[in-house]
Amino acid sequence: MKMRNTLCLTLLLLGSGLSLPTQAAAASELETTMKSLGRQYRQVLETEDPARLQQGLEAMHQAATRARGQLPERLQGLPADDPERQTYRQGMDELRTGIARAQALLQAGRTDEAMVAAQELKSIRRQYHRHFDVK
What we know:
Layout: H1 2-46, H2 50-68, H3 83-107, H4 111-119, H5 121-131
């Protein structure tokens, strides 16, 4: 019995130790994705060229899609139905919807409206960064 308990404890400790680098790598991957998203957003806001705007919006949509599939470190380990995890995914979904709206306006030749829609993405970022206390 004692040997079995020791073996279980050893396996538990090894297993938790193995998950730490994985969680750290996932958090680092999310950070990289979010930084890419931010860079693309700055480029979108700075351009007046519709082709570059479309390219930037597409890159943002791809990054937001990747980020939705990742979790911030503080949310890892929480149950899938945890309200904080749901709020994170909701924010990423709102962002992706906003980006898609700007893309649709751009494809319809309504560049000025697409730029306004892109600028409105700031409010989504601000809302969820405030919620999750992201600086």
